[in-house]
Design brief:
four-stranded antiparallel beta sheet, five-stranded antiparallel beta sheet, 2 helices, 163 residues, Thrombin, subunit H, Chitinase A, domain 3, mainly beta
Length: 163
């Protein structure tokens, strides 16, 4: 079966930065399962896997626009430190979900000063050219329930309730 929209696809892969440093891998764990066309993968990898079959091996380099996007300076903001008073100790590298005008967004603290905290709403890999290497392990049609919920279900269901 070829990979097409609404297919459940299972892949093992690793991702590397421009220097060839491995940033993450599924090799020693479970493969990644996703629904093709759900925008779960970075755009370049999802496009590469369209129409492929089980056994396809990929070695794909994606520019930032086809990976996690360009780094957007507008997503970096310096905010008053008192906004974090209820959070306890505030440290560089902490991540949390912030409520924004565009809805909830994951942000990372990148600088802490006496009266301000700098937060960055960019993905940690934004602005980077990345290489994805891996293999397609399985392809099957998604169930109606998976399509309705927008994610792959393990055998026996997804393990949580939907409202």
């Amino acid at each position: 079966m070829k990979i097409e929209n609404d297919s459940v696809v299972s892949i093992h892969f690793a991702v590397y930065d421009e220097d060839g440093t491995e940033l993450g891998s599924t090799r020693d764990g479970a493969p990644l399962d996703y629904i093709q066309g759900s925008l779960f993968l970075v755009p370049g990898l999802e496009a590469e896997l369209a129409d492929k079959e089980v056994g396809y091996q990929f070695d794909l380099t994606c520019a930032p626009a086809d990976a996690y996007g360009e780094h957007e300076e507008g997503l970096v903001q310096e905010v008053p430190r008192e906004l974090f008073e209820t959070e306890g100790q505030v440290e560089v590298g902490m991540r949390f979900i912030a409520e924004t005008d565009q809805g909830p967004r994951s942000v990372e603290i990148t600088d802490v000063k006496e009266s301000t905290v700098t937060v960055d709403g960019n993905h940690t890999l934004a602005g980077q050219t990345l290489t994805f290497k891996g293999e397609v392990l399985a392809v099957r049609p998604a169930t109606d329930e998976e399509l309705a919920h927008g994610h792959v279900h393990a055998e026996g269901g997804c393990g949580h309730t939907h409202h």
